From TrEMBL:
GO molecular function terms attached to this record: isocitrate lyase activity; metal ion binding
Keywords of the record: Lyase, Magnesium, Metal-binding
Catalytic residues of the enzyme: C218
Catalytic activity: D-threo-isocitrate = glyoxylate + succinate
Organism: Polaribacter dokdonensis DSW-5
Entry protein name: Isocitrate lyase
Lineage: Bacteria, Pseudomonadati, Bacteroidota, Flavobacteriia, Flavobacteriales
């Protein structure tokens, strides 16, 4: 998407030329062309500029999805600005556009990788300031990617290539980020204050969950405690007020329910009349019928249907929900959130099963027809095992031969080339398209991919580097792959801004500038290397 709201080179050039006339000789050393180029290379001045721009993108994408469910969106979780930058550079290289591709900021990864306390579990123990700090860092790196790529285009333009149209229609690396505010890090005022910081850093979409802030657990762990709807609505309101106050009118709120896997509540809401939200919430609380005589001193009791009930309470004071009410609670959570300011839903599920997700979403759509989900394609799921089990059950129901498969050992590598495996892998491949079509999923994300890829790549590199392969492990497994695949940071000095800095120093100091990009810069060894296309051609010739 072209950044239509941003000033183009020509308009900036005219502005600077007028400023030079206004301020006279004191500006004589300022080159208008250089200044216009620098402005063009930094299209977003503040995080709020980014939040407003990307919110517009998300709203358009949501409308596109409502008209055609094949137009879903995707993202990958990033725990560092460099990771996000390289992701978006790769998106532009491989797919030619950033359209429908977002970023995700995972609270889990902030806790595990960005806290000053050191690695922490996903329990809202990390500093709340770490979240907006990471958002700002990510957008700093994406703006740098814009500046570096545009700087290269301007250099080529100066060398005679006709690239002005490409510069004027440049597609930014800046894309929407869906940012995790956990359970709000405190009461609704705390949620509002943190939301403001996240929006000011650039976030156009905030995801909040209905767990108790001080008892928050990862959505894929046990021990989750949810809050009554009134408490959650207050936090939805707090986020909306933050968006409005900062002028991000199209800001997006993602309401997450953890009720599918949560069996506890900390608080019993006050019902004002039968059938209200508090009453519906209380109806899910597990309780046993007693007589007044059986009631203990200082015990909490409820009246329901003319009967006296004792809520089931644990030693820690938490109350239990009735077994089997989790799906009904999910549906009520979703409907209530959408009717009270949320734009998108997030339902945590135990497995990635299209039919199970659709069964919940379709119930929500009976009340809110345009309900849409953000869905966590979580690394906490064993995708291989889950889909092999699904296919096993489908094959058994269809009367296909399953005798040579051990249902309890479907992860065994001996099945990797089997019919069952291929069918399961195809279901994994089409999961996003299938669930977007059948289960209302607008946005697919993987929360922790770069956490796992970093661990995997370090495992592979260290195995060889500290073993018999030595330096060949790095050259063969990393650098040669970067060269062959055209990975931008193979020239890491350029990617860190060295060439960009040389040009800036020339703007500032002219011929006196001390530049890094001379003949003795070892990065020159990577100039004129084969592109991925050329490399593939050479391989095919050898073959």
């Amino acid at each position: 998407m072209k950044n239509l709201a941003q000033p183009n080179y020509s308009s900036v050039l005219e502005t600077v030329q007028n400023l030079k006339k206004k301020f006279g000789n004191s500006w004589q050393s300022i080159n208008a062309e250089s200044a216009a180029r620098m402005v063009s290379q930094n299209q977003f001045r503040t995080g709020l500029d980014i939040a407003k721009y990307t919110a517009g993108i998300m709203r358009k994408d949501m409308s596109d999805y409502d008209a055609d469910s094949s137009k879903y969106t995707q993202s990958l979780g990033c725990w560092h600005g460099f990771v996000a930058q390289q992701k978006m550079i790769a998106v532009k290289k491989h797919h030619k556009t950033t359209n429908k591709r977002y970023l995700y900021l995972s609270g889990w990864m902030v806790a595990a990788l960005r806290s000053e306390f050191g690695p922490l579990p996903d329990q809202s123990m990390h500093e709340k300031t770490a979240v907006p700090a990471l958002i700002a860092e990510i957008y700093d790196f994406l703006r740098q990617a814009d500046a570096i790529e545009l700087n290269d285009l301007f250099r080529r333009l100066e060398n005679g290539e006709d690239l002005q149209a490409e510069i004027d229609n440049y597609e930014s690396h800046i894309v929407p980020i869906i940012a995790d505010i956990d359970a709000g890090f405190g009461n609704e005022e705390a949620t509002y204050l943190l939301a403001k910081k996240m929006i000011q850093a650039g976030a156009c979409a905030l995801q909040i969950e209905n767990q108790v802030s001080d008892a928050k657990q990862c959505g894929h762990q046990d021990g989750k405690v949810t809050v009554p709807h009134e408490d959650f609505i207050a936090k939805l309101n707090a986020i909306r007020y933050a968006f409005i106050e900062l002028g991000v009118e199209e800001g997006v709120i993602v309401a997450r329910t953890d009720s599918e896997g949560a069996g506890l509540t900390q608080k019993l809401p006050v019902s004002q009349k039968p059938g209200d939200l508090a009453s519906q919430y209380l109806a899910f609380v597990d309780a046993e019928e007693i007589t007044l005589k059986e009631a203990k001193e200082d015990e909490v009791l409820m009246k329901r249907g003319g009967k006296l009930l004792r809520p089931i309470r644990l030693a820690n004071g938490l109350y239990k929900f009735k077994e089997g009410t989790n799906i009904d609670r999910v549906v009520l959570d979703c409907i209530t959130s959408l009717q009270n300011g949320a734009d998108l839903l997030w339902i945590e599920t135990p497995t990635p099963n299209v039919a199970q997700i659709a069964s919940m979403v379709n119930r929500v759509k009976e009340m809110v027809p345009d309900a849409k989900l953000v869905y966590n394609n979580s690394p906490s799921f064993n995708w291989t095992l889950n889909f092999r089990k699904q296919v096993y059950e489908e094959m058994a129901a269809s009367g296909l031969d399953i005798l040579h498969y051990d249902k309890e050992n479907l992860m065994d590598a001996k099945y990797d080339g089997s019919y069952l495996c291929k069918r399961a892998d195809e279901k994994i491949r089409t999961f996003q398209a299938d669930s977007s079509r059948e289960a209302g999923i607008f946005h697919h994300l993987i929360t922790l991919p770069t956490y796992h890829t970093t661990a995997l790549h370090m495992n592979d590199l260290t195995e060889g580097y500290f073993g018999e392969e030595g330096m060949l492990a790095y050259v063969k497994g990393v650098q040669r792959q970067e060269i062959r695949k055209g990975v931008s940071c193979v020239k890491h000095q350029r990617m860190a801004g060295s060439d960009l800095g040389d040009d800036h120093k020339t703007f500032f100091a002219g011929d006196k500038a001390l530049k890094a990009g001379g003949t003795k810069n070892t990065s020159n060894q990577f100039d004129n290397i084969n592109t991925n296309k050329k490399a593939k051609l050479e391989v095919s010739k050898v073959a």
